[in-house]
Amino acid sequence: MKKLKVTALAAALLTTVSGMAMAEEKLDIVFAVHSSASNTFWQAAKKGYDDACAKVSANCQMLFTQTEGSVPEQLANIEAALAQKPAAILTSIVDNAALDDVLQRARDAGIVVIGVNVDDLEGADGNARQAFIGQGFLAAGYSLGKAQSANFPAEGPIKVLMGISAPGQNWSEQRGQGVINFLEDYKKSSGRDISWEKIDSGTDLAITSDRVGAYLAAHPDTTAYFDTGFWHAGVARVLADRGDAPGKVLLGGFDLVPEAVEQMQKGYIQVEVDQQPYMQGFMPVMMVYLNKNFGLAPANVDTGQGIVKAADAAAIMELAAKGLR
Description:
This protein is 46% helix and 17% strand. The chain is of the alpha/beta class and 325 residues long.
């Protein structure tokens, strides 16, 4: 129901702005993220951002980092954006302290600041951003663990590896903790023998493949691997290359990038969580437009924790081909 309401909101915003955008002064908007341009997830977010900017005739920039997940590079990009004095800065807040000063200075200068994709752990109490548009990570991790538990073997011990893709970064730590919270509850309620370990799994398909592949080789009794991003798609390739049958090691993670959806179609990935990157790019632009032209305060938008399974993969691939996933 929540997803439908948000989709209806997006449709209403389109109707509102489509006839007005040309009459308004063009807005300068900068979107500075913590990821590189090669990150497939962010390309889907960029399409939403670009489409929204076109709808309201805004002048928009999306600033990527050269190094995946580099907060210092992201900070430098925001400093450069602040010097341009745009109408708004959109950014992912992966660190609880690193962006506090620059975003406060942006707010003091009258710039609209919206957190997108990742928020400060304390929300508005921890950062000057005016709203957050993205996923609730703890809840999403919990939902992932719960959905995958339906595929756990009926008998015997359950051994789980939890991949923390970016140790120290809010999105990765919270998603991983959400999965662990579910495992703790499941262990208490079922009385089964359940154990888990955490690993620094990395934010690169090749690196994650090497690290997790080595772990699985040393621990062949592992039941399931959870990733806090989409890099378990590389683990699926490793399992296939080794001749392991789909489902021998259960795989689940986040984001419906083509690499992950392909592995769902092959049966190696059983569950993914969708956080709707197109919406994360599109909605903050609408918030800026409404704020600057109608005085409406930016609002929080939960972009969801939809569970996607193999049966949904074909339909998702059609959207991926259009750049929407």
